[in-house]
Amino acid sequence: MSTEDKAATGASMLSKAPPAILAFWLVKICATTAGETGGDALSMSLNLGYATASLIFLGFFVVALLWQLSTDRYRPLAYWTMVVATTTIGTTTSDFLDRTAHFGYVWSSAFWLALVVVILILWRVVCGRIQADKIMERRDEVFYWLAIVSANTLGTALGDFAADDTGLNLGFLLGAGLFSGLLLLVGVLWRLKAVPTAVLFWAAYVLTRPLGATLGDTLTKPLTAGGLNLDRLAATGVILAMMAVIVVATPRLRNVAAKA
Questions:
Q1: Following DSSP, what letter does each residue of 218-230 receive, concatenated?
Q2: pTM reported for the whole predicted model
Q3: Phi, psi of 240 (to 5 degrees)
Q4: Higher pLDDT, 226 or 84
Q5: Whether pLDDT at 13 is above 70
Q6: Which candidate, 110, 156, 122, places its Cα nearest to that of 164?
Q7: What is d(CA 49, CA 81) in angstroms, rounded to the nearest whole number?
Q8: Among residues 108, 102, 93, which one has the least CA distance to residue 49?
C-alpha cells in the first residue's frame, strides 16, 4: 500500500461518517422510508397528532445526537440511529408545518431549501471546505447534522408536494419514479464529473428523502389512496432490519473504524 493510500485509509478510519458508496445510499433510502412509516405510525396510527409526535421524536433526536457526538469515530449503530432520528423528526415537523400550521408544501419546501443552502454556505465559509464523508472535526460534525436534519425535512415536504392532490398530484408510485429519475441524473453527473462532488452529495441526500417518503406512503397508505395498506409499525421494523442487513453485509460500512 502506498503512502497516499495509507493516509487515505487512516483518514477514513478517523472519520465519523461512512464513505458515500452505493450501499450507503441504499441504507439512506431505507432510513428515510423508515422515518416516514415510523413518523406516521406515531402521528396517525397511534393518533398522537403531529405536534405530540414531533416532541417525542425531538427527544429521540436529542438522545441520538448526544450519542453520536460522544463517539470518537464512525460507529454504525450510533450513526444510523442518528440518521433515522433526523428522518422521523423531519417527517412529523414537515407534516405539522404543512398540514397543521398550513404553511403549504411550496412555502415549506422553499424555506427548508433556503436553510440547507445557508447551512452549506456557512459550513464552507467557517471550515474552508465541505467533505461530507470525512467528518473529523467537531465544527464539521455540527454543520453535517444541521444540514442533514434540514435536508430530510425539506425532502419530506418535496415528497408530499409531488404525491398529494394539493401539489403535483402524481401519486406515490409516480412520485417515487420522479425522484428515482432525479437520483439517476445525479449519478450520471457524478460519473461525468460535471458538477462539484459536494453539490451532488447534498442533492442526492435531499432527493433520497422524498423517495423514501413516497415509498413509505406506497407501503402504508390505504388502498383507496394508492397504497398497500401495510401496518406502519410492522413496515418500520422490516425496513430497519433491512438497514441492519445491508450495513453488516458491507465491510466498508461495517468496519470503517472498527479496526482501531
A1: HHHS-GGGTS---
A2: 0.87
A3: -60, -35
A4: 84
A5: no
A6: 156
A7: 23
A8: 93
What are 85-96's pLDDT values in tens digits? Answer: 999 888 888 888
Name the amino acid, one letter, at 55.
L
| The three three-digit cell numbers of residue 118, written as one number | 445557508
Cell numbers at 72, concatenated: 470518537
* CA dihedral over 66, 124, 195, 209, signed as positive or negative: positive
Return the HEC string of 207-252. HHHHHHHHHHHHHHCCHHHCCCCCCHHHHHHHHHHHHHHHHHHCHH
- Residue 27 half-sphere exposure toward CB, CA atoms < 13 A: 27
State the Cα–Cα distance between residues 86 and 73, nearest whole angstrom: 19
Q: Could you tell me how many residues make up the chain?
A: 260
Smallest CA-to-CA distance from 81 within 63, 98, 107 is with 63
Q: Report the distance separating Cα 186 and Cα 201, nearest Å.
A: 9
**Domain range annotation of the chain:** 15-254
C-alpha pair distances (Å), 230 with each of 41, 56, 72, 134, 217: 11, 23, 39, 38, 10
Q: Give the Cα separation of 51 and 179 in Å (integer).
A: 28
User: What mean pLDDT do residues 71-79 have?
Assistant: 93
DSSP state string for 162-193: HHSTTTT--HHHHHHHHHHHHHHHHHHHHHHT
